[in-house]
Structure formats: C-alpha cells, structure tokens
Amino acid sequence: MKRISRPTNWVLVVELDDVVRRRDSAKPNLYVGLTIEAPVVRYERLKMGYGPAWLRGHLVRLRDDLVSGPFLSQEEARRELRMAIRCLRNEGYTINRDTRVWTVYVIELDPKGSKDPGKGYVYVGETSKAPEERFKEHIKGKRNKRGRLYSRSVRKHGRSLRLDLAPDIKYFDAASSKAAEKRWARKMRDEGYKVVGGH
After folding, report:
1. How far is CA 163 from the centre of its chain?
2. What is the pTM of this model?
3. Domain ranges of the chain
C-alpha cells in the first residue's frame, strides 16, 4: 500500500513593526517566508527568537489572511512564495526589509543643446534611487561593470533636477515605473517640451 503524502509546506506572512521605513505609510512591514511547520507553530517559534535575527523584537501578529498553503511540494510552495512577494510588493507592502520604491524624475537641459527646445528641453527618467542621487550620476558620468549609468544628453547639457515638473507618485515595481516614465515623457511632449529619455 502506497503512503499518501501530507501537505507540509506553507507560505508564512507575519506583520512587523516599522523595522525599516515603510514603502507606503498605510501598509505595514511584513516578513514573508516558507515554513514546514503549521503557521501558528512557526509564529510562536519566531516569537521565542528562532529564525532570522532581524525579526527579534519586531513581530506584531501572524497574518492568517495572507498565509497560503499547505502545499504538497516545496517547489509549489516556492512558486507561491515568489507570487505572494510580488503581489504584496506591488500593493505597497514593505517585504523582508526591501524599501525600494521607484519614481519618475525630470532634468532640465540647456536649451542650447536642441535646435527647437519648445517650451523647455528636458530629460525624463525613472529610478529606484533618490532623484538627487540619480541626477549626480548623470552629471558625473557614472559607470558600473555593465556600462554607462548616465544619459549623454544630461551629462553634456544637464542643468538642474526639476521635481516641480515630475509626478509626485511612488511606484512599487520597476515595470510600473517604466510605463509611467513613457507616459510622462509623452505628456510633456504633448505640452510642448522637447523630451529626451522617457524610454
């Protein structure tokens, strides 16, 4: 007689206090991980100090509403874990201390760099860094192992960061930010600006 496997894998979700700055002030920090113990049992063990050291003293409650499982295989649980993390991040939750948010930024360029600057000559970009830091990278011609981190147009003609021309919106994933960058560049072109970037 063949034994039937019992499901023993869960995706555990625990609400934390503000162990790091929240990505969205209305959404708490969460710890999301895999467990082979029932979520209630694992949560109690976390409260006793078992598990990642950074969690100690920061547990608020088990989020039964977000826990999923049990799953028969660890592979299935891992797929669910990746999907849960992606969905919760896209909603603005701070997961496992990842505080990245993306923004769209605008840099004013010297109008002498364009034959027809229109209402203004600008560069539109998006970043998970502070816009001020990203502006400095463009101006200084920053590189990494993969190549250039700057726009040639900004390096040559960059004047100033124009936060007043950029949307005041946080994006919780790179894809949303890239789409917003394209929309913002199109909007500025429609308003009469000469735009570079906005890929």
Report:
1. 20
2. 0.80
3. 9-95, 103-197
